[in-house]
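Key result, reporting period 2: structure in, sequence out.
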């Protein structure tokens, strides 16, 4: 039986967690396979945070056999699955339940990231998901990389402003593969709504890089407790400027015990540079999306009284 997670299930979840399979879903900005009992997930579940998180469990003989949990993206039309604890057989049933509820709530897209070698990828494809990109999580090992404080040459680094949205959308259109744009947003509004908004307790900072008035890079830096993560979207940056931007990210996350960078497989210059600066690849993940059919009421004729 698959049903929503209730507050009364907390003790049952605690006792069942030792027997459950580990979480296969990967949060975009995190190395760790977070537990649904973590403080972040607990607060999102039980505090009034505008329906930010929904979770379903599969019960069998009084035990929780599997679990799937979503958190909403930046807009109401997209959800991200960040907990998926199930075997291959149960995976399909849990994802079908999420899809059915999402359609009723007007959600248009479901996102899921799984390790590229995960046995659940086949189940996700059978549930209607399709892969659209591969990315890497690379951990900084604390060697290499000179931490430059000033931007080289004609580049200007500044905090992102609200008026940059159109320019950033154009940058992503130019810098990322077409499959990413199709999945994550063909229009500005859709692209804004499908962006991951992160966990409630995380600190997020965003910067843009200008070259003679033209936006050429976007840097996002997230941190929580002893961990930090950064991501760079760029177009036509030479290696020196890209190295400076990576080093600036390290400066922002100085003192963190774990620092990782998320990089698309298509960002070959960045991946080569990360290896040079002392990063090591720890996870390769497949990004999947499911586009949901939204019911549209057909127009009907009715008599007009005159």
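The corresponding designed sequence is given below.
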């Amino acid at each position: 039986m698959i049903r929503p997670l209730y507050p009364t299930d907390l003790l049952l979840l605690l006792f069942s967690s030792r027997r459950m399979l580990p979480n296969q879903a990967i949060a975009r900005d995190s190395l760790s396979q977070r537990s649904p009992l973590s403080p972040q997930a607990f607060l999102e579940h039980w505090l009034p945070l505008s329906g930010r998180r929904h979770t379903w469990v599969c019960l069998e003989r009084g035990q929780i056999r599997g679990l799937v949990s979503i958190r909403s993206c930046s807009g109401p039309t997209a959800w991200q699955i960040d907990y998926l604890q199930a075997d291959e057989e149960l995976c399909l049933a849990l994802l079908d339940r999420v899809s059915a509820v999402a359609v009723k709530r007007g959600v248009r897209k479901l996102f899921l990231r799984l390790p590229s070698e995960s046995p659940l990828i086949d189940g996700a494809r059978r549930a209607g998901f399709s892969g659209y990109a591969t990315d890497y999580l690379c951990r900084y090992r604390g060697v290499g990389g000179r931490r430059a404080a000033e931007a080289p040459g004609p580049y200007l680094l500044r905090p992102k402003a609200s008026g940059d949205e159109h320019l950033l959308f154009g940058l992503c259109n130019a810098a990322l593969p077409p499959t990413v744009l199709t999945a994550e947003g063909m229009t500005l509004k859709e692209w804004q709504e499908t962006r991951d908004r992160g966990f409630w307790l995380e600190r997020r900072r965003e910067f843009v890089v200008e070259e003679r008035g033209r936006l050429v890079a976007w840097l996002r830096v997230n941190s929580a407790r002893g961990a930090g993560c950064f991501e760079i979207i760029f177009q036509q940056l030479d290696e020196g400027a890209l190295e400076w931007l990576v080093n600036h990210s390290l400066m922002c996350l100085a003192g963190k015990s774990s620092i990782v960078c998320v990089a698309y497989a298509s960002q070959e210059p960045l991946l080569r540079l990360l290896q040079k600066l002392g990063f090591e690849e720890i996870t390769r993940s497949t990004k999947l999306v499911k586009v949901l059919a939204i019911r549209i009421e057909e127009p009907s004729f009715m008599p007009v009284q005159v």
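The longest strand covers residues 279-291. The CA atoms of residues 98 and 193 lie 19 Å apart. This case is discussed further under Risks and Mitigation.
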